[in-house]
From TrEMBL:
Subcellular localization, as worded in the UniProt entry: Mitochondrion membrane
GO molecular function ontology, one term from the record: monoatomic ion transmembrane transporter activity
Family designation: Belongs to the sideroflexin family.
Name this protein carries in UniProt: Sidoreflexin
UniProt KW Lipoprotein keyword: no
InterPro entries in alphabetical order: Mtc
Organism (species): Strigomonas culicis
GO CC terms of this entry: mitochondrial inner membrane
Keywords on record: Amino-acid transport, Membrane, Mitochondrion, Transmembrane, Transmembrane helix, Transport
Pfam families on file: SFXNs
GO terms under biological process: amino acid transport; mitochondrial transmembrane transport
Membrane-spanning ranges: none
Membrane topology: Multi-pass membrane protein
Length: 325
């Protein structure tokens, strides 16, 4: 497949379209990026520096796009530090191939120690990823700690509630399957939303800093908490969307599939396979659902952003902001 001419100013794919964003995230989540280290990333940066210096004749577009992807996904944009491999977005799929089946296994959900342990590990990992991919090098550890504590409380509380309910029901019944397929999902999804809400509370809460908004001419017009709230709802929705196909659907599908003798003989293997398919097929579209650069009507923002004019004198009708992940 041919690649577009390389540019360091525009993206490889059209990020205004769902298909473009989907292709971008499929590449960004590629586990091959876990093999990148300081030496290979220095080589990639040298290729990009050669291109910027005018040495473009012997460098292919594919090489340059691969180099840019490696640097953008594996090097922190503010600190310049190499992000440890376990905390890169490319680790998300491989880790969850193990974590989700373990989290949703009946043997886990009927055991208090196992449920607590797997939820604690999951939220600890999420906190480490949030810190490694923080928006700046000045983010206080207190914010990470608060988000971590809130997420652990919600995830463990909800999952332990499912454990308590499942202990009162015969295993394999329809009601038990429904509880196993929905309550842990709600707990993990709520914990993910709580985590991002706590981490980014200065962006959306009243009296907070807000996030930067630009008009149609690209001129920064200030910081808006209304845009921060819009960002939070979309980031939260994405987390719910990517948990649904790997946590809810596989468990519920086992109800009709268990009528098949071959599947009834190996239920756990079948459910694990469905969960892995759900993770692989569900995460990229969930991330691609919303562009990282969002457009919002002026009427949805605070009064100070309404009634303003552009450079040509026409009214500012829309603003854009960086949504983040």
């Amino acid at each position: 497949m041919s690649v577009p001419p390389f540019s360091d100013a525009t993206t490889k794919y059209d990020m205004s379209s769902f298909s473009g964003r989907l292709r971008y995230w499929c590449e960004s989540l590629n586990p091959v990026l876990l093999l990148e280290n300081e030496r290979t990333l220095q080589k990639s940066q040298m290729l990009l520096d050669r291109w910027k210096g005018g040495d473009r004749g012997r460098l292919s577009d594919a090489e340059l796009w691969d180099a840019r992807r490696a640097v953008e996904q594996c090097v922190h944009p503010t600190t310049g530090e190499v992000i440890p491999a376990p905390y890169r977005m490319s680790m998300f799929l491989p880790l969850n191939y193990v974590l989700v089946p373990l989290m949703m296994a009946p043997s886990t959900l009927t055991s208090v120690p196992r449920t607590f342990g797997v939820q604690l590990f999951n939220q600890t990992f999420n906190a480490a990823v949030n810190y490694a991919n923080r928006s700046s090098d000045k983010q206080p550890l207190s914010e990470i700690a608060k988000a971590y504590g809130a997420a652990v409380t919600v995830a463990c509380g909800g999952s332990l509630a499912a454990t308590a309910m499942l202990k009162r029901l015969p295993p394999g019944t329809t009601v038990a399957t429904l509880i196993r397929g929905t309550v842990p999902f709600l707990a993990v999804s709520c914990a993910a939303v709580v985590n991002v809400a706590c981490m980014r509370q200065s962006e959306w809460r009243a009296g907070g800093q807000g996030i930067r908004v630009k008009d149609e001419d690209g001129v920064v017009r200030g910081q808006s908490t209304a845009a921060g709230w819009d960002s939070l709802t979309k980031c939260g929705a994405a987390r719910v969307m990517w948990n649904t196909p790997c946590m809810v659907l596989p468990t519920l599908l086992m109800l009709p599939l268990s009528r098949i003798a071959a599947i009834r003989a190996r239920p756990y293997m079948t459910e694990c396979a469905l969960q892995i398919v759900g993770i692989t097929a569900g995460v990229p579209p969930a991330l691609a659902a919303f562009n990282v650069v969002q457009t919002i009507d002026a009427a949805q923002l605070e009064p100070q952003f309404q009634g303003l004019t552009r450079k040509d004198g026409s009214p500012v009708r829309q603003y854009t902001y960086y949504k983040g992940l």
